[in-house]
Structures are given as structure tokens and as C-alpha cells.
Amino acid sequence: MAIPLGMAFAIASGVGPEYGLYTVIVAGILISLFGGSKYQIGGPTGAFVPILFGIVSQYGIENLLIAGFMAGCMLVLFGIFKLGKLMKFIPRPVIIGFTAGIAVIIFFQDRLPTSSD
């Protein structure tokens, strides 16, 4: 399930489908090695598509690895300082609104006219 989804997200992010395939394979191995559960389920999520598309379109594919490394460092720091417990203070409507906003961005990403049209 993760392989076609990863390839689709790669295309939606502005890179080739092979990058999605590589990412799914490497991420699957890393999730298995470092996951905290016996039955770990992990895979790509749609919330990253607008973020990745913006990074690739503005800075190029070469800098996507740097952005991923920086995001990983932030996640490690959040884990070290146990900042995940702060999630309980984010109201449910905010989380639902964020998710709905991402869905709208993904839906209209290729449908909105640009200045070159």
C-alpha cells in the first residue's frame, strides 16, 4: 500500500516516481529498526505534499535532502525534550482544520491559475 502512495506523493511533490519508491523502501527499513512497537505501521502521508512541493519548486531537488535532515533533527530534539506531550493542548478543531486545509491545498494545487496562464 505504501509503495504506490509514495510514488504518487513523489509525483505530486514535483519529482520523479523513483524518488517515492526509494523513500518508501528506506523509510520502511528505518521505521522497522527504530520503531517503538512490535507491530509498527508507517508510510507516507498527504500532509507533506504541499510542503515538499514548495521546497522542490523554490530550492530544487538537491536541497530536499537538507530539508529532510533538518526536519529529522527537529523531531529527534522534540523526542529528547519530550515535547510530544504538548499535543494534548492543541484543540481537536485545530487538528481537523489543519487536515482539511491540507486536503484543499492538495486538491487545488494543479487547478488554480497562475501568473503564467
TrEMBL record:
The keyword NADP does not apply. Residues 1-109 form the SLC26A/SulP transporter domain. InterPro entries: SLC26A/SulP_dom, SLC26A/SulP_fam. This is SLC26A/SulP transporter domain-containing protein. It comes from the Bacteria. One of its GO terms (biological process) is transmembrane transport. Pfam families: Sulfate_transp. Keywords: Membrane, Transmembrane, Transmembrane helix. It is a multi-pass membrane protein. One of its GO terms (cellular component) is membrane. The chain crosses the membrane at residues 6-34, 41-59, 65-83, 90-108. It is found in: Membrane. The keyword Transmembrane applies. It comes from Bacillus safensis.
